[in-house]
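Aim 2, interim progress. The first record below pairs a target sequence with its C-alpha cells.
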Amino acid sequence: CNTSEQCDNGICMHPDWICNGYDDCGDNSDERDCVIPGPTPKPPKPAPPQSYSGWVKSGWVPGCLFIGLFVGIALVLLTPRVIRKLRGVRPGSYDRMDSPALA
C-alpha cells in the first residue's frame, strides 16, 4: 500500500478504519484529524399514559360531582315550595281533604 494509506507505524490502513472511533492501527493514527461529533441527543421520553386518575387528582371530577349533588338536592327540596307558592297554596291547607266540597 502507498504511504497515504498507511498508519504511522507502517501498517496498511483499510479505508473502513478511518474515523470509525476505534484505534485500529494501534497508534491511533487512523483516528487523527477526525471531527468527533458530540453526543447524539436522546429522544424525549414519551409521556406516561394518563388515565382518569389525572382528572380526579386535578379536582375537576370531584368538584363537578359536588356541585351537581348540591344543585340536585336544592331542586328536590325547593321545587315543591316554589310550586306551592306560585299556586297560592299554603302549607297545611290539605289537612281538610275529607270535608265535602262547598257548592
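The second target in this work package is listed in the same format:
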Amino acid sequence: MRTDLTHLNVHLPHHASRWWIGHVVVAVVVVAALLYAAAVLLVLAGRMLL
C-alpha cells in the first residue's frame, strides 16, 4: 500500500497541474457566466423599475 501511494505521489504533479488547469478554466467560465447573468438581471430589473 505504502509503495503504491509513494508511486502515485511521484506521478501526481503532472496530472495534478492538468487537473488544476482544467478546474480553474471551468471555475472561470462559471464565474463569468454568473457575472453575465447578474448583469443581465440587473439591466432587466432596472428597465422594469424605470
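Residues 1-50 form one domain. This observation will shape the mutagenesis plan for the next reporting period.
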